[in-house]
Amino acid sequence: MSQLVIRPVEPQAVTACLLTTQKAGKMPKTKWRLNLNLVLLIFIAQIQISEAVKCFDCVGMDCMGSFCEGDYCMISQYAPRWGSARWGEPEIVKGCAKGSMLAKDVRDHCEFAEDSDEPFTCFCNGKDLCNSRKTIRKVEREDVELVQCVCNGAHCRNDKTCIGELCTFVKNHKTKQVEQGCTNASVPLIERRAIGSCMAPPITGAMHHNVAKDAVSLLAVESCICGTDYCNSEKPSISVPEKEKCNASVEVTTMGTQTRSKNISCTGEFCFTASIKSKLGVMSSYRIYGCASFTGEDALPEELDPTGCAIFTSESLETKTCFKTSDRAAVGRALASKQIPESKASKPTKGKSSKSKPKQVEVEYDDEEEEEEEKVEKPKGKSLKNREKAAEEAKKEEKIKEEEEEEEEEEREEEEKEKEEKEETSTKKSFIFQKPTQPPIPDDSNTTMITVFVLIIICILGSGIVWKFELHKKLRRSNYDSVAGG
């Protein structure tokens, strides 16, 4: 919705403008008119037209609480986490998104994990309060494929692979501890901008698994996140120039206790800041400064620009992330890799993937495909070709499984059709056909009423005519009597 924001001119400015004309002495009328026109132009220049949309601002998919205004309405998920430990239950949050890092032409759409009924991210600004459940059902649906990742660390238990939204490669440069695994986005907007990058320190608390216990140890951690199958089998290589010198620090407040690291510096392609203020879960605030460099293998999300700030505000949650760089080439690389929305026709249909689909913000592991896991077991240190071969083999096996499932479904459908045909022949109903019936004759009561009404009108008219003739006779007789008597 468009709002007209009028900023009136201060009286001091108008009086100063008029005083300058008075000091100059008497002026012709034309100059006075020009001066007044100038004041009007200054007044009009203060009028700004800003577009804002009104959104629901609350916690829960069906909530309809308070309201906020922003560039876009959002539905997202918030899962307070520190590594693999949950610091609160995942919640669906509704709110407003705004900021210079948000693109101006984001389409109304919702992103769903494969075969999930609840969205994990929605953007809309077509009309006010568009982030209600009823309106969200009508916007474009985009199914996001989950990725298979190498899993290595205490959080993996006995599994060698896992499935999630993103793959991670985490290293603590102080203790030399390395962990690999899966993660899902836990905070609105912040992690979306970091996809395909290596960050130091990690941009959120969910990005480091178990290699950091507090804010001080998190400062020594580098976390890489990527969005393709087995992209974390080894540390992603950064080939772009890292020209930005950035400040790096971490500040976390949990249960009223604040921990803060020292301030150091780092170099990267971009400098970033991120902050979280939350009333949900144990962590009440999180603030981080750091640097990030991108591999170029993952696309920039369509709703974001390379630099600027993006803010999400909700009733119980507020997040903000900013990216900046003085390297124009870095901005150009990010724009060149920006995601282009796919058409509905090219999207995969539901129910054709053999992967397991987690709805919660939690990693799920494959327990049934042990043979496949052995083939792709921890390809750490292998070359890119080996990774590609492993991914191709996994895809081939998936295609074979999909074809088998499709054949089974077709056989089931044929069997069901045959059963239905047999039932129809055995329980065939017999019908007695009659001549087409005519519509019922209308009741005579209506016609009789109409005729009676017409007769009454005729009687009234007849009596009126008779009365008129009688009146004329009386008038003539009175005239005759008056003439005869005269």
From TrEMBL:
UniProt KW Disulfide bond keyword: no
Keywords: Membrane, Transmembrane, Transmembrane helix
InterPro entries the UniProt entry points to: Snake_toxin-like_sf (IPR045860)
Region (Disordered): 334-442
Skewed-composition ranges (Basic residues): 347-358
Compositional bias ranges of the Acidic residues kind: 363-374, 403-418
Superkingdom of this protein's organism: Eukaryota
Amino acid composition bias (Basic and acidic residues), ranges on this chain: 375-402
Gene3D superfamilies (alphabetical): CD59 (2.10.60.10)
Record-given protein name: Uncharacterized protein
Organism of derivation: Caenorhabditis nigoni
Organism placement in taxonomy: Eukaryota, Metazoa, Ecdysozoa, Nematoda, Chromadorea
